[in-house]
Amino acid sequence: MKTFAPKFLLASLLTLAACTVVPETGRRQIMLVSPTEEAQMGLQAFADVKSKEHVSTDPKYNAQVHRIGERIAASVGRELPNAQWEYVVLDSEEVNAFALPGGKVAVYTGLLKLVKSDDELACVMGHEIAHVTSRHGAERTSQNYIAQGAGELGALYMNYKNVDPQKQQLLMAGYGIAANVGALLPYSRLQESEADSIGLRFAAQAGYDPRAAVTFWQRMSEATAAKKDTGILAKFLSTHPPDAERIANLQSLVPKYLPVYEAAKQRYQ
């Protein structure tokens, strides 16, 4: 009989016990990845990216990313206490940025061409760093462990019951779709909204205008509108909230962080 992978069994047994809390929102999250494991994965992933992507030496872009990154790092402070901050600009038309555990941040030149100010870029970088401080990557990994573990348990049970192999395949395929659409994707959208809120705080504390997040996402939405499916099915299959919802949420958050920005910007003038 097929044996059950120990890590998946551990994930299933510890689902209720291994929980952490996102400080900003108080949301409880399942966590089966230790901070040490998470940091190691982040360092490896960052090294892989730098070895495979073309690192830009453009002085203007690099100065902008480092200037903003250092201010946001000071804003993050104790929320990422062991970070060894490193910023890299990747020469690609991809409109993207990401941050990894350990304080590793990458910004693509495609994004730098789209942003119109330091404030806009700070809101994007704050968002990406918020994913790290909230341990969203480790949370997704933990959820995948649990989903896979539940699938393995289901397969073992069907083998025990001598369920027809063809039927097993259909049931497992259905389970995979249900787990992804019903659990994993909604959590991904929740994490994006959470990172929007926390990222605005990081940017505002660093003296960057939180209103810039709205203008950036309005421009981003216009730039990518032709490529997006806006139907109801697309919403459920997306890892991110729909642009209109995201922009409305950011607009609602701006009044909360404007006083933070007004107080902080005095330090940088």
In terms of per-residue confidence, which ranges show pLDDT below 50 for 5 or more consecutive residues?
231-238
How much helix is in the residues? 55-70%
Oligomeric state of shown chains: single chain
Q: What is the string of helix and strand elements? A: HEEHHEEEHHHHHHH
Largest sheet: 3 strands, mixed
How many distinct helices? 10
Characterize the structure shown.
This protein has a three-stranded mixed beta sheet with strand order 3-5-4. The protein has a two-stranded antiparallel sheet with strand order 1-2. The model is unreliable at 231-238 (pLDDT under 50). It has ten helices and five strands. The chain has 269 residues and is mainly α. Helix 7 packs parallel to helix 10 (243-265). It has helices spanning 6-13, 35-52, 59-76, 109-114, 118-133, 136-160, 165-205, 211-224, 232-237, 243-265, and strands spanning 19-21, 28-30, 86-90, 97-100, 104-108.
Q: What key phrases describe this protein's structure?
A:
269 residues, mainly alpha, 3-stranded mixed sheet, two-stranded antiparallel ribbon, 65% helix, globular
